[in-house]
Predict the structure of Costars family protein ABRACL.
Amino acid sequence: MNVEHEVTLLVDEIRRLGSKNADGKISVKFGVLFNDDQCANLFEALVGTLKAAKRKKVIAFEGELLLQGVHDNVDVILLQE
């Protein structure tokens, strides 16, 4: 799969699973994304796709890398509508 396509799929999944935060941006907890069956089937490397999307300024999250369990409550915020 190509990275652009995976980032587009990630945006769709954040919209599906997330909700608007106080700033009006769509946000979802990393743990929700990671544990979702549909996401598990779509992404071979969710963390890699998240990093690529962050580099492209499509999403934002605190830190450089998100790990299951440790970062389950970290917000992944969609920057582009």
